[in-house]
Amino acid sequence: MRRTEHERRLEWQNSKEGKAPAKPKKTATKTEEKSKITDPSHEQIALLAQKFWAERGWQDGYAE
């Protein structure tokens, strides 16, 4: 639905100093959380793979 020129002027007059409402700023917590996440090392991946292998009963082959 399109607004009329009159509606736009009323909105402009009612807003602070004639400016559009400010967009909400992103919080710093999301940025901080992203910066704390690191890729796992090769050793961490190897230990996790060995753990899964042990949980399967040390079986060779595919997971299927």
TrEMBL record:
Region (Disordered): 1-42
Compositionally skewed regions (Basic and acidic residues) per UniProt: 1-20, 29-42
Protein name in UniProt: Uncharacterized protein
